[in-house]
Amino acid sequence: MEGIVSFIRKAIFIGIASSFFFFFFFCFAESNDHICSVTKDSCSLNDYVPAKLLIKGGIVVNADRQEIADVYIEDGIIKSVERNIKAFDEIQVIDASGYYVMPGGIDPHTHLAMPFMGQVTIDDFFSGQAAALAGGTTMHIDFALPSDGDLLEGYKLYREKASIACMDYGFHMAVTKWNDKVSKDMEVLVKHEGINSFKFFMAYKGSLMVTDEELLQGLKKCKKLGALAQVHAENGDAVAEGQIQMIELGITGPEGHGFSRPPILEGEATSRAIRLAGFVNTPLYVVHVMSIEALEEIIRARQSGQRVIGEPVISGLALDDSLLFDPDFDVAAKYVMSPPIRPAGHNIALQNALSSGLLQLVGTDHCAFNSTQKAAGKGDFRKIPNGVNGIEERMHILWNIMVNTGKMTPMGYVRVTSTACAQIFNIYPRKGAIIAGADADIILLNPNTTFTISSKTHHSRIDTNIYEGWTLRGKIETTISRGRIVWENGKLNVSPGSGRFIPLPPYSYLFNGIDKIDSDYLASIRASKQQKK
Ligand SMILES: NC(=O)NCCC(=O)O
Ligand SMILES: [Zn+2]
């Protein structure tokens, strides 16, 4: 009898102890999941318990197919995509008939809360992301800058800045000098911190610019780590020379910005970076391709079999440089970015290259400075902080200039706004697709709604807009981020801290076969050495 009582006591004790264990285990796991978020108090319950959603009867578009289907979402994940899914009582149903139902946009190029040219970009990780969600972008990859050249310190700072995020995000890391510590930090970032790309600035002499020698070391290290090397391709030495020339000519206004860094300097740096990446045999990603000169280098390299990705940005695709010549400084300064927005013709060439697959994905380079910040360069264009808005406008403008004009199908649109980015940065198909198992990042676009862009109604903090007054057809009326409806009926429903950091794993598809090419090359060198003997 005593034995039975003692057995029951033990069983009760083990039961209670294990309940405590599991309680603490799950609490810890939950808090760990939000390790970089602000306190939970600032997040609404909605952030943790996404609703069950059924999107019914829309035109579901992926990069490879388009079909009328329903999309069922549970716990922030797409559970099924098929026709005639039954709606049960507790499921919220969205009628999507007549709407395009597409993966949320992924913006590969943003600069939120970035210190640059004596200013800090006006959109932080909350305001910039809220604007993005209102414009149909559900994830972005921002550029973390080193802190005084220190990569890990810089990265830590950016993770802290992003604690107020309200949508999913990842990071690229910039490399602005070269030494052993930089090399070791790159390794730590790739192996332990979810970084799989490093950006090298070939411009901004005296601040961010790297030398060819530094770039070469960086390319070698990227290859070793399976990380993608990215370049801002402009010849920084020549730009500095061009700027002096303009000042000597008495050209001090925003138009001097464009004249001082002509397309030939973008073409030269693009060619140089491509050739160095070819020498190392590592993939290369050219950010913000703005000119025919750079485009031609990318096409030539791709034709020769080199793995080069070209990213045009929405400003370069949609605009020409005419407003850079506006006599009103405040108007012209809005358009100052680097490489510069080019004369008419370059934008059309970039559009054509995008539609034919010669360029692969579209970014924004959202780097917003308001008019008081831009005013720092009155009387000297070299001091105008470089950067334009776009995180909120990219999806709509691209739909208008590419899909409404017949240059691109909705499937092509999905490819360049979302899928290609997810593939290049190795998070496909969790992102970039509407398929079972993917994150429920989805937009509903009404192709018949028109609206007009204005700084008075946009959601970014910037007080101007480079697309001011543009009337567009086709509106993203609903944005769903991980199963939560965050944008609907012209209203945002977001809270700081609800966004998630998405680690980006190394060795994307771009690295497949690189080792084979290397070993074949080494074998051919050895063979030629033996022949000589
Ligand atoms: N692009 C630009 O003008 N500003 C952001 C920094 C950069 O990407 O070059
Ligand atoms: Zn750049």
TrEMBL record:
Pfam families: Amidohydro_1. Signal peptide: none annotated. It comes from the Eukaryota. GO terms for molecular function: dihydropyrimidinase activity; metal ion binding. Carbamylation allows a single lysine to coordinate two divalent metal cations. Homotetramer. This is dihydropyrimidinase. It comes from Ceratopteris richardii (Triangle waterfern).
